[in-house]
Amino acid sequence: MTDSQDTVTAPAEQATSGGPRRTLPVGETRYTLLGTAHVSAESAAEVRSLIDSGEFDAVAIELCDSRHQNLANPDALGEQDLFQIFRQGKAGMVAASLALGAFQQRLAEQSGIEPGAEMRAALEETRARRLPLVLIDRDVGVTLKRIYHNVPWWQRFSLFSGLLGGVLSRQDVSAEDIERLKEGDVLESTFSEFAAESETLYTPLISERDRYMVLRLAEQCPPGRYRHVLVVIGAGHLKGMAEHLAQPLPEAPTPEREALEATPPRSKVWKALPWAITVLVLTGFAIGFSRNTDLGWQLVAEWFVINGVLSGAATLAALAHPVTVAATVVAAPLTSLNPTIGAGFVAAGVELAMRKPKVRDFANLRHDVTELKGWWRNRVSRTLLVFLAATLGSAAGTWIAGFRIAGALFGG
């Protein structure tokens, strides 16, 4: 940043009514950070009032592209090509997004206030006044991936099982959860119990996003481009972002911003593991047949039975179509020996062919996933469950059958 753009930090401003604010002059531009409550009708009204005042010539909001699309078009998720979702390996992320949406819907039904109302107000008012709207938050999928890679492996299962258990629970949302939502979004509220005690979780969930959003401001609303920018964020981000804005902004923010979007590449060991398992299993078959033909066929039979039965049972638990269950039983032992295609992909493809989702399934998707039985009632969400169940069943079958083969050959 040049000398003419040195940051001058104004004292914190607390509006006489409404959320906390900080106004920070940076060069020729002033940035007003408005801390909002994501479940507050007052916050939405305050956003409308500020934009209507004519004081601002640009508005930045705490949304990423995907969340913006979901807010602008609530049915966008249900309109995606399901087959492409499975092909691209995004089924788990979509299921997590649906679960978070279910939590939002329950909260809205209980409180009478739609979470994110202040962001929707910003969208509507900027459109009406033809003001530039800038999305500054990091993609929620990237944040989830960085959380996953940042926490110790032993904490991952409890973290995400807690996430799914919490959002699928039919109990009323607690007063504590609602209070957390007044300072952060649904993602922050869901993980706040863990984040409070875990620096490894707090970093990607909160502090990285504080920095990321300031870098996005430096890219999209650099000093001098606009006169006065309104930045609508959850109140929990106000302090961190203000501290970053009080420091000189980088002249080239893009490399640092891209670094905060990166996720660690999958290790070579994990990439090679499926192929190694294939080689070991086929080698086991060969050793079995070289010793005794009956032993060889016994190993092959155990591989097919264990892998097929576990995968089929998992899809049956997901209430898959009988043809899907049968296809999974046959396909799982074969796909486990071919790392380029998974049993879940086959199961989901057959399920889509046998029970193609109807228009009402897409229309009711957001509502159906708010209750546990709705995940099985709706054909879209049930197909996701079939995919996940077949994948997990096949993985379990591969390991169990693999150990059985090793025991038969080398266990004496």
Automatic annotation (TrEMBL):
<dbReference type="InterPro" id="IPR046345">
    <property type="entry name" value="TraB_PrgY-like"/>
</dbReference>
<keyword id="KW-0472">Membrane</keyword>
<dbReference type="InterPro" id="IPR005230">
    <property type="entry name" value="TraB_bac"/>
</dbReference>
<dbReference type="InterPro" id="IPR002816">
    <property type="entry name" value="TraB/PrgY/GumN_fam"/>
</dbReference>
<keyword id="KW-1133">Transmembrane helix</keyword>
<dbReference type="Pfam" id="PF01963">
    <property type="entry name" value="TraB_PrgY_gumN"/>
</dbReference>
<feature type="transmembrane region" description="Helical">
    <location>
        <begin position="272"/>
        <end position="289"/>
    </location>
</feature>
<feature type="transmembrane region" description="Helical">
    <location>
        <begin position="326"/>
        <end position="350"/>
    </location>
</feature>
<feature type="transmembrane region" description="Helical">
    <location>
        <begin position="301"/>
        <end position="320"/>
    </location>
</feature>
<keyword id="KW-0812">Transmembrane</keyword>
<feature type="region of interest" description="Disordered">
    <location>
        <begin position="1"/>
        <end position="25"/>
    </location>
</feature>
<feature type="transmembrane region" description="Helical">
    <location>
        <begin position="383"/>
        <end position="406"/>
    </location>
</feature>
<protein>
    <submittedName>
        <fullName>Pheromone shutdown-related protein TraB</fullName>
    </submittedName>
</protein>
